[in-house]
Specification:
- The chain has one domain.
- The chain contains three helices and three strands; from the N terminus they run αββαβα.
């Protein structure tokens, strides 16, 4: 299990990556939720719950983040990892 600091660093890095790369995401994925790990888009989901459930199973170290794909980026931050904990 990762520490809170490690998780926060992953979330921060992923958010900066998302801001830099979001314009490359196809329009048909708007309003989806993207799972990001190690500054890479992993998978897109219809709901934040689905994204987090998938991530918790696949990444037991909790080093990932989830971001809604839209024109108004909101940093879900550490809280995004804690939903459905």
């Amino acid at each position: 299990m990762s520490t809170r600091e490690e998780i926060q660093k992953e979330v921060d890095n992923n958010y900066q990556f998302f801001l830099k790369e979001k314009d490359k995401i196809p329009n048909y994925l708007l309003d989806k939720y993207v799972l990001i790990r190690k500054e890479e888009f992993i998978e897109y989901f219809d709901s934040i719950d689905d994204a987090i459930k998938y991530a918790k199973i696949k990444y037991e170290d909790n080093l990932y983040s989830v971001q809604k794909v839209n024109d108004l980026p909101i940093n879900l931050g550490f809280m995004g990892n804690m939903l459905n904990a």
